[in-house]
Records
---
Amino acid sequence: MAPALIPERIETERLALRRNAPADLDAFVAIWRDPAVWRALMGGGEPDLEFAAERHARQVEHWQREGFGLYLVEIAGEVAGWCGPWHPDFIPSLSSEIEIGWTLRHRFWGFGFATEAAAIAAGIAFERLAPRRTISLIAKSNRRSREVAKRLSMSIAGEAEIPDSGITLDVWELLGPPRFMPCEIYV
């Protein structure tokens, strides 16, 4: 198991980011079970709970192997989503990049939580992992995530297709830490 390269827990006045662990399977699957999340990330259809469980296992393993990964986002003590840096292994050509991913359950949308969490995750990634850039992979139809990327000062750098899916995502990039931090951070 790799030592943690980023803090395993970060708090602000409004939310906490904490390391995703094996015991968090039910909370992680509950995020995917939200039909609005499934539509935003997968384009439609019914949530696939087996897929969600497999993604959880991959995220836990990523933390163990790499020393960083997606955090679970807690708001008022409830798991509201995930956010953090990881290697997007579902697109082999980008698997060495560091992606800042974020997703919140629908009832937490519209309050700035995703922007706050993503700004923290991007700042930590640049500070502790020192990449040349970070990326975010966003569906063209995912207006809300595109707006978060813009608030982080990200720009579109290209496209990438998820193999064997027919799904093309925009590759957004950030070439340095976010220019603003919307909150005070407590590590």
---
Amino acid sequence: MDSKVGSIVGIVAIVFVLWFCFNAMSNNSKLQTGINYLQTGKTSLDYHQLARLDAQQNGISADLFEKQINQESGFNPNAVSSAGAIGIAQFMPSTAQGLGINPYDAVQSLSGAASLMARYYTKYQSYDKALAAYNAGTATLDSAVSNCGSNWRVCVPAETQRYITAIVGY
């Protein structure tokens, strides 16, 4: 009789664990997308929604981050720039490698870009400076701030000035 009770308890425990795992997975859009991809070979991932989620999880403006990714690639995960930047977040291969991400993987790229922007925002205490660091590099931004002070934007490349304006609107 004891072995029957033990078997029933074991089955109930397994069912409970499976139920818990299923509920956890159904609330995770990244995991659901991965499961959908494995099942069908296609992704139904909404990159705009994912970008907003990654921004929120990293404590940066979802609106500005969505505009940034739109400016980077138009949300095209297969984008490659003439300068060699790759993917939806337009990472240079060395930057992607340093972050430990695959720039061709949109989920990794969006997560990495949001994390990087959060670090830049923390360092520079300004979203436009964080954008300049992302677009032109920290050395270029640091040089512009050092040489031009509060008027630093005139000292970054014209492409970076246009990039910031397109995203923040000023």
---
Amino acid sequence: MPVNILKRTQIDEWGKLRRALWPEVAFDQHRREMTDILSDPEFNAVFVSTGRNRKLNGFIEVSMRLTAEGCRSSPIGYLEGWFVAPEVRKKGIGGALLARAEAWAASKGCKEIASDTEVENALSRVVHAQLGYEEVSRLAHFHKELRHTPS
């Protein structure tokens, strides 16, 4: 299963896979994020897997961060997004994408790589663990709307 750096001709397909991973995100936000990622290749990379039909069936987005939960070194490779199409899962594609992202991070001088997922995303947590990632913390986020009173 070939895993390669994203080509410009594959950007639309990558966008479709991103929308499958994050369907709640508006199309315009995906476009902005994709533009930001592609505009800074020193600190970001996108690797893709191509099926026999030459269509993308998976991607991984990796960046470099200064810090990450549970990490002691800096910089740190960080998995920003990781998706394999449901119809081709359990065939080693996710592991191949991850290996390529890890190699990229190591080539940038990173000694550690980190990731995150929603606590309720059981599949992602299992896959991370199967591929050698240790869960280091759980975090609950809170929100409250404030009422503005005239002064």
